[in-house]
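Deliverable D5.2: sample structural annotation.
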Amino acid sequence: MTVSREEIEEKVTRALCTSLALDRDQVRSDSRLITDLDMNSLDFLDLMFSLESEFAIRMRDADFDRLLRPDRSEVASEQEFLTETEIEALAPILPGVRDAALDGPVPRNKLFSFVTVDTLVRLVARKLEQGWERR
């Protein structure tokens, strides 16, 4: 069974509303999980379990790391800030990164603060398309 992007977004939004006790109109596709929706680490775990159940997929930290980890082939892993190449590579899934770079260097340890509802939708869609680990 194929799930449309709209269906994925609706289910992700519903799960977010439930996990964070929010009204539907408080959640937009460009809402950032941490800064806009006040999500904390326990909320995030709850959301991951909800998404696993809803889509019958496995959401692991490694999967999220893969989505957010810039290509480090040219960069030493201990480098504190993202390079311009990394920012451009991440911009399609984390649009706020490009805007933040206009104000100065973007620290690697702040990358998760740019995760949006759309980022989650893309991650779920990618897992469903590629048939990643299903329960």
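Annotation notes: The mean pLDDT is 85. The domain at 5-130 is CATH 1.10.1200.10 (Non-ribosomal Peptide Synthetase Peptidyl Carrier Protein; Chain A).
The annotation will be released with the project's public dataset once the embargo ends.
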